[in-house]
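#onboarding

Welcome to the new folks! Below is a worked example of what a typical request in this channel looks like: someone posts a single protein sequence, and someone else replies with the predicted structure as tokens. Don't worry about understanding the tokens yet, we'll cover that in week two.

Example request:
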Amino acid sequence: MARNSLKNLPQILQQGAWPYIIAILHLLLGTVLVYSSPRSIFAFLVLLSSFFSLYYFKTTMGFKLLVGAFLALIIMPVLGVRNIFYLEVIFQISVFAALALGLNIVVGFAGLLDLGYVAFYAVGAYVWAFFGSQQYYVLPYAPGTQPAHLPFLLPGDFFYLFIFIAILVAAVTGLLLGLPVLRVRGDYLAIVTLGFGELIRVLANNLDKPLNFTNGPQGITPIQRPTMPTFVVDGFNAIFGRLVGHPADIASVYNVMFYLMALAVILVIVVVTRRLEDSKIGRAWAAIREDETAAIAMGVPLVKMKLAAFAAGASFAGAMGTLLAASRTFVSPESFSFMQSIGVLTMVILGGQGSIPGVILGAATVTVLNLQILQGFSLYLSQLRQSSAVIPIINFAWKDLSTQLDPAKYQRLLFGAILVLMMIFRPAGMIPAKRRKRKLLLEVAETQE
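Example response:
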């Protein structure tokens, strides 16, 4: 009897008022924990997972939107200003979620393996980095030899215009990549996109002569931010000052602003992606993903549809590149390495190819694992090394533990192990797309016959 009750518990919790109660209690618990312990990683994870409760439990769309907006627009900024590191984590999650959603169009919808996606991210960043900095006046000078107090080419408020310019430039870059190579398939396409990503990074690294466009490995800095009126800072402090517990400075309000802008970009991407998925273009991408030969036979314009996938995915990366350049006020080629592309691809595979909520969950999981769990565990081990603590039974002193065993140094190893396990036990991802889930179930049924 008790076993049957436990078995039916998930169904019971999805009925009546229970989904609403659980979602609200989860949100309140996470908020109280983070507010009372601003440095607790566990508390932050509890709060962050409340987004998943909103998604998982069956409530009305109005309730999901209202609670989600309250959590994202009020609770997260307030708690983030109390501990600025949390706001940085949330911003990173937002940036990588947008990148993963863009790559999901290419990999998840159209079935094109892109190993150089970070190149479009770099294009968006360098577009604003060049026009929003002093780099135009540095062109005749070798890196490090320019005179001081050079003027900026454009005012910082042009940043808003350059978000749209970066979208167009990145989309055109995606088209230029696609035109000569999209007739190749599979592994060959992956190799070409890998080369393209490295080409962009190497160009950024070496375009410091004969004219200094990118300042080479030193990167471009300072990059302007849009103007922040004093009344915005004063208004934030007047509304949220008591909740935060201390007055927010202009740097903290800037961080909140960029976080909100990243959320706005994600919202636009989700709406556009949803529209594309259910359109003729989305069905054409699905046909190409399943069987290119059959798609051509049914009249699908193969090259045009592939180009559309690359252009759409690239445009999203370009927008986030502009946000990155303005928020960091610095860009360099090292920010756009091949491993960044692999990291975004990992998020897509982990969350679920073709699944919008899955991809966002994958981005959040990988980012939190990178920035909080592994780093926090490494700091904890570092503190143990500085103490006189001893491991019981084996009498091993923590101070003798090698620094080579720090978890932060094994990020790639851990991601590789996660991907292997996912492909074995959950190949469709954490939140699989409905179409891919049906396909995998059909394949399993066929193999069992």
